[in-house]
């Protein structure tokens, strides 16, 4: 019966206190669908609420959260240590080198961002302008040089074409002379109808045909003055002149027949050899003209190509100089600022990670206590979470609690905890988180992590007793606050409805810490005593 009365009294007390709090911090509104919260100074607490179990102290296995080589073990077995003493260290040389490099990267990116935001100096602008003018001059010179080279190449090639036409004219003349000589030679000696005469007659007709064809091509070249015809016909000229030379060679052979050898005059034999020689020279000259033109074309192409590349390079350099001048004189681009800021943020994250890892190279005494056993020696390798030191806490009672994985980031070693024993509902104890398990615990398919909290057992709590825990992750004392219910959001901006004489006014605000106690820290936009309307 006594317990029932206590419950009734507690409920009545809560109702009275709730009404009193509402009277203090909320004022009445004429509109029954509204409440008014008065901005005040108060404490904002962000905490995790859980229920834990009291346990009796035992040896604690202390280990590194990284693998590595043990550099120092600072205490011996049996020695007393204080909370926070460094008990052992891993070799952190490589991590410190990486930290130095990350810091250098941060400094470099920060300097680049500062320079970008500061803008160029007058000297830098003047230098960039000078570079543009210099690049313009180089571009104009390269363009002029290309035109000169093209003109020179065209004139030089034209000379070779003229020489080729001259050699064509000479070759046609040589074929013409050879044809006329063979005609007279045939009528003088090879008119008897024998086999030799028939062959000579055939070769004479072939020379007639060669001459007519070459004369026709020569005429086309002269009339059109088309160099492409020269390129097209030169190989044909070479072939036909060689054919004419072969015709004379055959006639020479028939002239050595025993019968004709004695009747052909020596002067005619000499003339025949002369015509054979002239055609050989003409053939060589035509082939020489072909080679000279091809070589000159190749030379021209190479020289022009080099000049074009030089022009392209000059154009690229000009554009680069112009873009650099524009970049220097232009306002900093948003994307450039964001790029450097991202690199800075990344470097800071890397530094924070390395500092964290360097911190993990140390085993720190979580509480005051005694070194029971040392399981590893200096110079040995220690694996992550491998026990290195067995530690006995001075306080032999602690609270163990399983923290949900989403709440774990809110807690760290050293976090303050308020302990409310279920058996002593009106009593509170204070404690401190000294251990967070790196291994998860699965309970009903949900991930938890074991957390241990040390405390002074002034109430004589026994192992197995339940306690309600408030683990404080962040706290702001005596700051300007409002109720979380009074804050609304609009396009990622926060605002409140400020009560005015005329009614209400939308006021944009900037908030700080959002507490678990329904209070929110106000950084900008309100002052103490402002009345905020909360729509029900």
Name the CATH architecture of the largest domain: Up-down Bundle
**Mean pLDDT, rounded to whole units?**
89
How far apart are the termini? Answer: 40 Å
CATH topology name of the largest domain: Methane Monooxygenase Hydroxylase, Chain G, domain 1
Give the helices and strands as they follow along the chain. HEEEEEEEHHHHHHHEEEEEEEEEEEEEE
CATH class call of the largest domain: Mainly Alpha
Number of helices: 8
Main beta-sheet strand count, sense and barrel state: 6 strands, antiparallel, barrel
Query: Approximately how much helix is present in the residues?
Result: 40-55%
Please state the overall shape, judged from the principal axes of the Cα atoms.
elongated
How much beta, percentage-wise? Answer: 25-35%
Low-confidence stretches: 1-21
Class by alpha and beta content: alpha+beta
Strand order of the largest sheet: 3-12-15-14-13-16
CA-atom Rg in angstroms: 53 Å
Strand tally: 21
Please, how many domains?
A: 4
Key traits:
elongated; 8 helices; disordered N terminus; Elongation Factor Tu (Ef-tu), domain 3; OB fold (Dihydrolipoamide Acetyltransferase, E2P); four-stranded antiparallel beta sheet
């Amino acid at each position: 019966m006594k317990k029932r009365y206590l419950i009734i009294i507690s409920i009545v007390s809560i109702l009275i206190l709730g009404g009193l709090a509402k009277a203090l911090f909320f004022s009445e509104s004429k509109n029954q669908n509204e409440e008014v919260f008065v901005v005040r100074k108060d404490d904002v607490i962000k905490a995790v609420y859980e229920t834990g179990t009291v346990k009796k102290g035992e040896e604690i296995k202390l280990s590194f959260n990284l693998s590595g080589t043990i550099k120092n073990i600072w205490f011996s077995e049996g020695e007393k240590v204080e909370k926070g003493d460094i008990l052992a260290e891993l070799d952190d040389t490589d991590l410190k080198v990486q930290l130095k490099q990350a810091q250098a990267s941060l400094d470099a990116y920060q300097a680049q961002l500062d320079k970008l935001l500061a803008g160029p100096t007058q000297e830098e602008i003047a230098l960039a302008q000078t570079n543009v003018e210099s690049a313009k001059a180089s571009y104009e010179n390269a363009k002029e040089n290309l035109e000169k080279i093209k003109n020179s190449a065209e004139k030089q090639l034209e000379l070779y074409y003229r020489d080729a036409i001259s050699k064509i004219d000479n070759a046609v003349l040589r074929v013409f002379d050879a044809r006329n000589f063979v005609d007279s030679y045939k009528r003088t000696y090879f008119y008897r109808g024998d086999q030799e005469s028939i062959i000579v007659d055939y070769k004479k007709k072939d020379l007639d045909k060669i001459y007519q064809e070459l004369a026709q091509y020569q005429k086309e070249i002269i009339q059109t003055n088309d160099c492409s015809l020269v390129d097209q016909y030169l190989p044909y000229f070479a072939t036909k002149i060689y054919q004419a030379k072969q015709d004379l060679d055959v006639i020479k052979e028939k002239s050595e027949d025993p019968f004709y050898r004695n009747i052909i005059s020596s002067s005619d034999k000499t003339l025949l050899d002369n015509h054979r020689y002239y055609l050989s020279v003409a053939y060589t000259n035509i082939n020489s003209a072909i080679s000279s033109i091809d070589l000159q074309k190749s030379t021209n192409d190479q020289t022009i190509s080099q000049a074009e590349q030089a022009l392209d390079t000059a154009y690229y350099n000009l554009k680069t100089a112009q873009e650099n001048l524009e970049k220097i004189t232009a306002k900093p681009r948003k994307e450039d600022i964001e790029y450097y800021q991202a690199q800075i943020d990344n470097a800071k994250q890397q530094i924070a990670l390395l500092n964290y890892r360097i911190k993990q190279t140390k085993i720190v005494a979580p509480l005051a206590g005694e070194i029971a056993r040392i399981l590893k020696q200096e110079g040995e390798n220690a694996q992550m979470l491998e026990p290195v030191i067995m530690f006995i806490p001075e306080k032999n009672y602690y609270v163990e609690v399983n923290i949900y994985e989403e709440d774990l980031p809110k807690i760290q070693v050293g976090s303050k905890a308020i302990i409310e024993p279920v058996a002593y509902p009106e009593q509170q104890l204070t404690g401190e988180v000294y251990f967070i398990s790196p291994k998860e615990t699965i309970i009903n398919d949900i991930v938890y992590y074991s957390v241990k909290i040390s405390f002074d057992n002034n109430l004589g709590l026994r192992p197995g007793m339940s306690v309600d825990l408030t683990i404080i992750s962040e706290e702001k004392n005596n700051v300007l606050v409002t109720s979380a219910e009074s804050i609304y959001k609009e396009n990622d901006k926060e605002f409140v409805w400020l009560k005015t004489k005329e009614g209400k006014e939308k006021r944009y605000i900037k908030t700080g810490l959002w507490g678990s106690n329904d209070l929110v820290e106000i950084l900008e936009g309100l002052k103490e005593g402002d009345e905020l309307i909360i729509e029900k």
